[in-house]
Design the sequence.
């Protein structure tokens, strides 16, 4: 073996050992991050079940009343438009169809300010993930042919997953390599070194995603209510009784607002019907 070949083999061996050590470190960090996330998710889900049992019916009542108030508010605004245009308001007339809810200026808590007791889909988060992936993999950002081919394939997969509402597939795609990483991998000498580097990048991305999920979980309303409940219980108070009383007061106020809106809608409807 020539001296140059020996130096190259030694260098590759050192690189391989370094990358193997980095992969082990990345695996350990990923396991720790996913364990912390799983523990937090389990605690919040258990508290969500408590909420459902203790105050679930009140939360449902409040959200139903809020939706009804929004419908009344939109109807009132449409009636005012009909009066202004000098035409009758007919909910069966296609002219009035397809109109979005008119923004409701409301000083009471919005739906997003209440605990999520259903654990349903977060469509806003799905859209944010799709936009992030679309920015990352848009072929127009490719620096060369290798990147363009990779980004085109990834963008196609992202679009299919989003159209099919396959959130798991979108999250898997978030773990795929960045286009710049593809270029770096192509520059490495040797298949094994490229494979090790690719594994490290994927482990690091999964760890970042776990940390991001934990940060998002900590900002959820159910998590904030859980922290409040812990403080109340540490102070010797019964958290759900206090939250229940707050919700009952909000429901009482909401019903009063709805009665006012119902009266306004009925009066304006009579004015328009009997000009």
Sequence:
């Amino acid at each position: 073996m020539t001296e140059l070949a020996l130096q190259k083999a030694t260098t590759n061996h050192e690189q391989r050992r370094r990358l193997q050590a980095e992969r082990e470190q990345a695996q350990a960090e990923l396991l720790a991050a996913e364990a912390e996330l799983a523990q937090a998710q389990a605690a919040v889900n258990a508290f969500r079940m408590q909420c459902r049992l203790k105050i679930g019916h009140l939360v449902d009542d409040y959200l139903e009343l809020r939706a009804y108030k929004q419908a009344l508010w939109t109807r009132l605004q449409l009636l005012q438009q009909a009066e202004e245009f000098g035409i009758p308001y007919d909910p069966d007339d296609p002219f009035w169809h397809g109109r979005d809810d008119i923004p409701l200026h409301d000083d009471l808590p919005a739906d997003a300010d209440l605990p999520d007791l259903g654990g349903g889909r977060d469509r806003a988060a799905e859209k944010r993930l799709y936009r992030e992936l679309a920015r990352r993999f848009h072929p127009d950002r490719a620096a060369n042919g290798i990147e363009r081919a990779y980004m085109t394939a990834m963008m196609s997969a992202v679009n299919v997953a989003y159209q099919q509402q396959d959130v798991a597939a979108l999250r898997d795609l978030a773990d795929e390599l960045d286009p710049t990483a593809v270029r770096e991998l192509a520059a490495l000498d040797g298949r094994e070194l490229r494979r090790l580097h690719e594994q490290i990048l994927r482990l690091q991305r999964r760890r970042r995603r776990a940390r991001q999920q934990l940060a998002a979980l900590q900002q959820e309303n159910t998590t904030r209510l859980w922290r409040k409940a812990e403080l109340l219980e540490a102070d010797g108070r019964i958290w759900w009784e206090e939250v229940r009383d707050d919700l009952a007061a909000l429901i009482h106020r909401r019903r009063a607002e709805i009665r006012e809106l119902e009266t306004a809608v009925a009066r304006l409807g009579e004015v328009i019907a009997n000009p």
